Each structure stands twice: as structure tokens, then as C-alpha cells.
Predict the structure.
Amino acid sequence: MPVYYGWVIVACAMGSNVARQAAAVATLSMFIVPMTLEFGWSRTAISGAVSLGSLLGALAAPSVGPLADRHGSRALLVASAAVVSACCVALAGTRSLAWFYAAFALSRMTFSTPFDVGIYAAVAKWFVRRRARAMSLVAVSIGAGLAVIPLCAQLVIVGWGWRAGWLALAAFVLLAGALPQWLLLVRQPEDIGLRPDGDAAARAPVESRTGEPASGDAHWEEHSFTRAEALRTPTLWLLMAYTLLMFPVQAGISLHQAPHLIERGLSPALAAGVVSAFSLAAAGASLVFGAAGDRAPLRVSLFAAAALAALGALAMRSIASPAGAFGSAIVFGAGLGGVLTIVPAAWASCFGRAHYGAIRGVTLPAQVGGQALGPLLAGALHDATGDYGAGLAVFAALAALAAACALAVRPPRRG
């Protein structure tokens, strides 16, 4: 039997996800120390560029989302890769804080919205029953990218300097994020005579052991919500609250993890290794959450991911050895892997695939707004207190609130 073409779409989405990590906060964290040593910038100043880019992404999201529904993800992803690559070239020529803000904010805006919408809309339109599993592979690519790209960037920085590091990222983004997508992406299975999941005919809904629809349940495909209908459901607002609470934690810790580890006595090379372990843990957890997510109730998966992130953030406050650094990073990475797998699948599982881009576009500001707040909050608390302890305590509390919020999530109903 031929391989279902949806898995080719997943491979393209994974390539885009790896490429977009050039603008990830974990990658930027490798550049913080050498750039601040050269220019004398504060951690708050660096963090502000991340926050500005995320806010710009939040403003762009409602108009970008419907484009993926109407025209597909191909042009969106290729253009996104070209923009991020050009921004990396510009970052290599940084001479002032204003220049850095302009280049990184544009790169971060593209990371936050066009890349995100294009990647997850592509996968959501090709899968229903196996959606959580497909999304888990996409989430694995985030972990793989974050495991490899910051480490490779650090190696280039050590050998040739931070400017060469940005140029190396620029070349990689085009190779992994533009060429395969231009050649292979197709908007949806119906465009080439196929059905979601490769089914020959419609399948019966899949139920979890509790009788409640799982996060990858085909039942909700039969009842696609428009954006206006979705906005009238409590489910949408609970999921938005969850993302608004969790993504400051994700972005704040990801950006400041390496500087925190160095301040706790680890060498830059060992700190890069811990960041890679965190990313690999996220990748492994994504597979676990993806396999469970097609059967488990959505609220259970969301709760488990947030609880792990809260525990990991608390453990990071008391790092006293390399073993403690690796242990806390692995726990936090496992929670983050769950969040990155289950949240994108949740929008399609709850509201269907027909209007996924439009719904993702109107809800994405909660995610990118959280990503804007987290790095700035961590940087400001660090500058005020002299370390990252207060920031990590705040992030642990936010993740705990998200876990409580997850328990209230229920399948949506038309009002």
C-alpha cells in the first residue's frame, strides 16, 4: 500500500519547525552572553526584542489565519523561511540596539504567527483520527531543532564568533524551511482525491475510555465550528486561558535558561548541553503525549503537561550541580513537549478542520502574548533581584494555574 501523502505533509511541517527555531528564544539565549559583553546591553533590553516581536505577531494573527484556510500553507511557509533567513543575515551585522530590535522583532513575529499558523494548519487539514500522533511528530521536530540548533550555534560562536553564528543560521533556514515546502506541500487531501488519515470512507468516531472525545477524536470533524461559533463556547476561552498562562513559562525559561545555568556555575558549553537535554526531553515527551492524546481526554493531557512544567520550573530554582541542572531541564522539557503537542491538536479536535486557520488566528494572540510577556518578566525580575529565582517562582505558579484551568476543559457545544 502506498504511503499516505499526509505523512509527506508532516515531514514538510517538521522541516519548517526545525528551520523556525533559528528565531527561538532558546537559540537567542546562546547569543545573549557574547552580545551583551560586546555591547553592554541589559537582559531586559535583550528580552524586549522578543516581546516586541511576539506582540507584532499577535496583531498579525487574525489576518494571517484565514490565509491558510483559503490558500494553504505552501506560500506562507516559504515566505516565512525567507524572512527569517534575511533577518539572521541582518542580525549578523548588528551594530546598535535599534538594529537588533528591528531584525530580531521581525524574525520573532514571523516565528510566532506565519510559521505557527502555516505549520499546524497544514497538518490539521490532513489528519483527524491520528491528529494527535501527527502533531506529536511536529512537536518532536521542535525538540530536535532546539536540541541541535542552539548547540551548533554555540559551536560556531566559539570557533568564529557570534556574527558567523547568525550567518550559519540564515543558510540553514533556507535549506530546511523553504525548498521542500515549495516542492511538496499540498493544501488538503481533497485537492488530490484523498481523505483525511488516508481513509477510503468516513470512519466512526473514536472515544476514550471515559466516553469523552479524546484530543484527536474524529467525532468533532463532523461538527466543524466557524470562528464566530467557536468564540461563543467556554471551551475556546478556557483553552486561551491555558495558553496565556503556559506560554510565558515556555518563552521566559527558554530564553533565560542558559544565562541562569551559567550564573549557577555551569560553563557555557555545559549550559548548552543542558539546553539540548531539555529539548530532547521535550521531543521524547511529545511522542508519549501524541500516542496518549488520541485516546485520553483532552483535559487530562493538558493537566499533565502543565504539572510537569510547574515541577521543572521549581526544580530550576535550586540547581547546585550539573545533575540537578539536567534533571530539572528534563522534567520541564517533558511538560513543554506535552504543551506543544496537545495545544495545537486541541483547536482542531474541538472545533474541526474547515476553519482551523481562522480559529487559530484569532486565538494565537493569547499564545504569542504570553510569549511576549515571559522573557520580559524574567529579564526585569533578574535585573531587579540579581538572579532568576523570583522569575522561576512566578513561572511555576503560572504553570500550576494552567493545570487547574485544564481540569475545567470540556467538549464544546453550539450555544
